[in-house]
Amino acid sequence: MSSQWIDPNQTLPPPAVTPDVVQAGFLKRWAALFLDNLILGAGFYALFFALILVAGMVGGFSQLEAIDSDDPPAWVIAAYVGVTLLYYVAAGLYYSLMESSRNQATLGKMALGIKVVDRGGDRLSFPHALGRWFAASLSYLTLYIGFLLAAFTQNKQALHDMVAGTQVVDRWAYTDFPERQQRSLGGCVIAFVVVMLLMIVLAVGGIIAAISIPAYQQYVGRAQFASVDIALTPLRMQVEEAVTGTAACPDNASVGFGPPESYAGVGISRIVVGEFEPGFCGISVWMPPVNGTVERQFLAEYDPDEDIWYCTSKADDARLPGWCH
After folding, report:
1. For residue range 266-309, what is the model confidence (pLDDT) as tens digits?
2. What's the pTM value of the predicted model, to 2 decimals?
3. CA angle at residue 112 from 111 to 116, to 5 degrees?
4. How far from chain centre, in Å, is Cα 167?
5. Measured between alpha carbons, how far is residue 54 from residues 9, 34, 59, 60, 305 in Å?
6. What are the boundaries of each domain within the chain?
7. Rounded CA gap, 224 and 221, in Å?
8. How far apart are CA 133 and CA 317, in angstroms?
9. 8-state DSSP, 102
């Protein structure tokens, strides 16, 4: 029995190191899911509109226009249900066939550089991939909380991954080139996050604008009518005195005004006093609306028999002064 002498000063080669498997992070999976749903949704609506177009060409577009949305005919309901069922069949085949293919990934996952494997890192069979798609319904039924688990679990598994025994990893994991795995987010993910943030900012900005613009317009309207109320208080008294005293309707000159355009008030372009309808003396006020044009927006006419003022306006009645009827 022979023994081999080993030089204690000899440098031994380091042991082989197996690279870690890079699990796909939540952001990558979220971006991939968004792209896949976008692709499937575009296909669904393209097919739906194609069927509507064919139905219109065959049965006549006038019949489609006559369809009551509150009580649609049975064939419309059947067509919508059929297209919806076809969508889920197409979605199941899309995910199952692509995740069990050579690429082991859907188009969205391929764009983000990730793939689906089983617990041992092997390629999924078609039945396994189909079962994973059915298990994904659990993540949807939990109001997407099942998908959110991928951000907190050790192997970044979503709920349906735990049920199906799968994992989502970098596309170079479990290959002959594991060193090519990408640990950073990558340009596609960063671009996706930026786009989503911009969409959120635009959506929030739209909501704020939808709330603030009408509120601002109401504020401007109330401010304008407040100015009108202040300006018309002395004029109303003069009109009432003139009508009850002389039975004649005064004009701008008799109430101390010059030409109608000479009036300069806050939120008021001009004021005209005169008889706008036979037997009724009134005051007409032009106010500039928000869009900058000038148009008559308020008319108050005095009825001496009933001693009341009748007002009409293009604005909401809630903005009219309290003395209006």
Report:
1. 667 778 888 888 878 888 887 776 555 556 678 888 888 888 88
2. 0.59
3. 100
4. 33
5. 84, 30, 8, 9, 67
6. 26-183, 224-319
7. 5
8. 58
9. T
